[in-house]
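Tutorial, part two.
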Amino acid sequence: MSEQPSNPMPAPLPAGKVVGGYRIVEKIASGGFGIVYRAVSPEGQEVALKEFLPAALAHREHGEGPVLVPRQNRALYRIGMRSFFEEGRALAQIVHPSVVSVLNFFLENDAVYLVMNYLQGASLQQFIQTAASLKHAKILRESTIRSLFDEILRGLRVVHQHKLLHLDIKPGNILITDDDRAVLIDFGAARNVLHKGSNYLQPMFTPGFSAPEMYSRDEAIGPWCDIYAVGACIFSCMKGVPPPDASDPHTLSKLVDLLADRQGLYSDSLIELVLACMHPDPSQRPHSVFSVQKMLFQAPRETGTSGGSGGERSVQTTQFLSDSRRASSRLWS
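Running the prediction step on this input gives:
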């Protein structure tokens, strides 16, 4: 894949600037597709304000200046704005404790803004990094993983029921709030529309967490992509590192090898869930979030390292790993 030229980040809006009635307090995050601010609503509520301003298509010289869109980018920029606006409209209909709440959305200054609840906490990625630094055999406890993804899957199921996809599920986009809730943030649907619409933008994927079909413009995108990402997040909770990049044709066999040392630390059913969700063939993954929930809710089957049946490794999991290796060979040979 050829390197895309880097684009300077648009200047953020200054503190004190008012857009749509919301007063900017400070910039809290930025990326290739926009800027997120801490802001205050007209009623005095603290909110997060997300500005759609993709650096690859538009620029702003200074915070008080206009959004500058070169002529050749204007059509795609308008498509992205419309998609981002529609994403806000769809998200505003979702009320679930595990999905970030969109309170308002509006167009101003040739940019689109989403107003969301301002959540305080730390990302799952930060928790994983901290746990991995302790050098324990386990990264996160299995009970913690199951409880966490029970919440995430409940929220994701509602998202899919609204015919919306997340498309950028990763530990950095799962927030563990200060009141101990797991919340999906930073939806990537609008960014995927831009990815599909032009060769000019950087591809919309996160190595290790994006399904293999997201690397191709010709493959169908759907709920199965989010299911792959859920499996990848659970893998990270078990290993402390991201899974191998799905663009590698040998990803499945690598996953099997990497998870082999998790047997005895985590239950067979959790290992099998990860491998099922991360199958490179979308048709071989669980067909819905509900299917993933049923697998997650299965009683953990221990591998026999402590208690259980005589210390023997689970025959069923060993067979599952063997079948996965053969599937990988058939798929990529």
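Residues 1-5, 197-203, 304-318, 324-333 have pLDDT under 50 and may be disordered. In part three we will examine how such features are distributed along the chain.
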